[in-house]
Amino acid sequence: MKTIINLFLVIFCLSTASIAQKRTITVLDKMSKEPVINAHIIDGDEKVFAVTDVEGKVEISLEREIFKIHSLGYIESIIVLKETDDIIYLIPTILQAGQSVMVYAYGEKKANIKDYQSTQSHHTLDHFLDNIDGVAMIQRGAFGWEPSIRGQSDQRMNLNIDGMQIFKACVDKMDPISSYIESNNLSKLQIDKSGSSVAENGNGNSTINLISKKPDFAPFSLHLTSGLRVPDQYRVLALNSNYATETTAFQVSGSIKKADDFSAGRGSVIPNTQFNKMNLNVGVKQLLPSKNSVEVNFITDKATDVGYPALLMDATKALANILRVQYNWRDTKAPFQLTTAMLYGNTIRHWMDDDSRDVTQREVMRNMHMPMYGSTGTIGSKITGEATALNHRFEWFLNGFMSEANGDMWMISLDPNVEDMYIYNMDEIVTKNVSLGGRHSFLLSPSFLVKIEESASFTSLGTNSDNYASMFESLYNKAYAPRNRMLFSGSATAIWFPKDNWSLSLSSIYSERLGNHIELFGHYIYNYVDGYFYDGNPWLKSEKSVNFELNSTVEVENHSLSLSVFHKQYFDYISGKEVSDISNNDFQFKQYQNLGEAIMLGGEVRAINRFWDNLKTEVRASYTYAQNTTLNDPLPMIPPLKGLNSITYNFDTNNITASMEWAVAQTRISKKSSTESKTDGHAIFNLVYTKSLFDGSLSAIVEFKNIFDTYYSEHTSIASIPEAGRNGMLTLKYHY
Amino acid sequence: MAGLFLAFNACSTSNSNEEDLSLTPINTVVIDGYTVKLSALDKLETGDNYLFWELEKEGKSIDIETMTVMPMMDMGTMKHAAPFKTPKRYKERNRYFEGMIVFSMPSGDMGSWTINFTITTKDGQTIEGSIEVNIASSWRFTSVKDKDGKGYFITWAKPSVPKMGNNNLAILVHTKESMMSFPAVSDAEVIIYPFMDMGSGEGHSTNFTAPVSKGNGLYEGSINYSMSGTWTTSVQLVVANDTLPEVIFEYSVKAK
């Protein structure tokens, strides 16, 4: 009996103590002061241990001093609980990151005007990006499309994977970095159209950051996808899996894709549009006793037999190996806080040749084969954290990388009496960069937020080859030395909320950039748009730009509208200038020069409307006007007014989406700085039907694109290679 | 110790004078107990050749005070000389005498080359003789005549092995006054045009600096080769307002 009484007393005391150590907090919307219902309270192991009720209240153990709160529509917050904290405010995502848009891929569900969802992960990432307003894809065939944001591509935008600096290896731009990641191993995209994320990126360029899938402390999951498309016989087999113990999580995703030549509208087969591709992404994440964590991620990608009908050559092989190790610190709100430290390394290698082409009939470089090889190797680090100074909390970013690029080309004449020729397009070109940036947010009133970002970076570009350097010394009659430059960028964004769900923001961005390694040290690089061979110019001045962007976003329960307009002006605009004394009818040469000023202006609109819970419409449109004001000539490769309209209807386990992709004719073409052709307008119609079976564990997707078999080409398709005609695809997805 | 130090310094000095010379032996003759050795930077060929002379007796190096040479082509029915520079001491205290000869034709059935020389040693001894040399054909030499039939010798002196990138260009111009006299021409205008024929006559030039006279028949400029392979460079002389016919040098440019 005494034992029972003692046991009872112990249980009573423990339970009393337990009750005494809990407290109730209330989670409210920062703007409206309304309760946030069903907000998830998450511990350091990423597990949900409590949920707010209809009054936004939740009971938290006093032992839990640090936790995360996550709720749809709000910025995820890390909370360090103080004794006096009874109310926690969540900031609506409408405030998030200025005009950055988040694009969630396979497995993520978000519902914000700035979120795009890829429901068709079996398609290539290229097609997905192409339909985002403000983004257009420069195409050279069916593979390796090159993203451009508001008409800016390559050197005028940042294209990263997990924030890593990766340089393409092909001087003909066959392998934009986006070609080394697949939609099924992609977690989300961060798209910063305005370039306001200066602190993180080290410059004010528009940015696409491809965020790969990471190991997740979630129950075991397995996704299998298989699809077949006709008539190009595109086959895809993809796998995604995640497994976790208490402290360790593993993730693997991979895909195999293969396609034959596609057919344009009205049935004409476009030769050299085939490709093979394999991609694998593996990761492991380890939670440490300190609640910090470390993760390792490795991506390997191999593409073979890739046709590029717009180019003189095809890619025989492209290999990428991308390794990332990242240490994550838990948030302590210390005066100086490290958040993440990432070390990374990557190698890109690219082989191409024209062995399968008839080289006797082409316009340039006739009667010779030209195998080419390019490689880049990059190592870098990215360290982020927070700090408090003068009672002001801010984020800081310290980035650094070093990269070497090499590229060469043989020219082997069909005439055995002609000696083989050899050329270096890039020879031991070394880029070094270190940048330090800060991001500051000032909530001046409950309805007015100001964000300031600044960055200072040091960039050095040079070649380790004396012979190669001598070529540029002779071209410009100057003594060679590595080009070292301090570059400064900054942005300021003011966001005002006239009403709870209506924001108006104005961003201004100043950015400086040294030309990239090809603009400074490329040699004899053929530009397929204007037909000139380009030489770099190590003595280019930095190009500067000033960008203004105005955005208005309205988001109510079932309707949302976002409208952006921008005006960007370039100074010391870098472009090619003809070298007439060595050009002739067969070979024409240009050198990069600072050619005055250019402007780009335009905007995007996106509207999403839901009706009766099962009908959704979406409208996206974008337009860019771009002009070299010094030459009084339109800039090349600028997409016309284009957009996408879609309507989606859900019933039971069925989903039907009908969409129209359209573009008006592009008549503003570059005649002085390039030699473009006008492009006709077009509209194509698509239909997708999805059926969920077995409680959603199996999905069947039937898709028809370009139903009316329209023959058309995008203005950003080099050599006006037409797009695919009518095609159909069946995809099966299994989820465990 | 001081002796060792001096000996070390003496050796160092001697080596430093010769360390940049990598010579190819050409021929040796023995005259009156003196051994005359002839070396060159490479095997001899048509065009300019830098020749290094040394004198030995009983295995010991003998200092040369002065030296004269005369290259001679014996064609059987006739003889002629060639443009040359009289040898001079290569470097201070160096045992070599360095000279230059522009051989205007290869050795072979047409004739053979000898170099007649006179050497005066520091102790007043005079050694006279001749030494045979074998001259190979090369792309670096050609000749042209003006409208009056006066001959001009054009020698592609540099680069002897053109490489991708910028190359210093040196061209020598001599004229024929007689069978034994070939003075340098220093007042000509030298017009060049490098060209890469990539097949079927299609190709392009590259950037270059036209050669200008530096005296003694030497013209210096530069050519920036954008790729390896077979290049041609046309050369045209303008002498006293007379534009001579164009001559073509064809050669291979190496990658590195």
Account of the 3D structure:
The complex is a heterodimer of chains A (736) and B (256). Chain A folds into 2 domains: 2-91, Carboxypeptidase-like, regulatory domain (Immunoglobulin-like); 100-735, TonB-dependent receptor, beta-barrel domain (Maltoporin, Chain A), CATH 2.40.170. Chain A is 6% helix and 54% strand. Chain A has a 22-stranded antiparallel beta barrel. A 5-stranded mixed beta sheet of chain A has the order 9-8-14-15-13, with no helix packed on it. In chain A, β28 (483-499) and β29 form a beta hairpin. The longest helix of chain A is centred in the N-terminal third of the chain and has 19 residues, at 2-20. Chain B is mostly beta strands and 256 residues long. Chain B has one helix spanning 2-18, and strands spanning 24-31, 34-40, 47-57, 60-62, 64-74, 79-80, 84-89, 97-103, 112-121, 126-133, 141-145, 151-158, 165-175, 189-197, 203-204, 208-215, 218-225, 229-239, 242-243, 247-253. In chain B, the strands form 4 sheets. In chain B, strands 1, 2, 3, 4, 7 and 8 form a 6-stranded antiparallel beta sheet that branches. In chain B, strands 11-12-13-17-16 form a 5-stranded antiparallel beta sheet, with no helix packed on it. In chain B, a hairpin with a 2-residue loop joins β3 and β4. The longest helix of chain B has 17 residues, at 2-18. The model of chain B is unreliable at 1-17 (pLDDT under 50). Classes of the chains: A mainly beta (736), B mainly beta (256). The interface between A and B is medium-sized, with 34 and 26 residues.
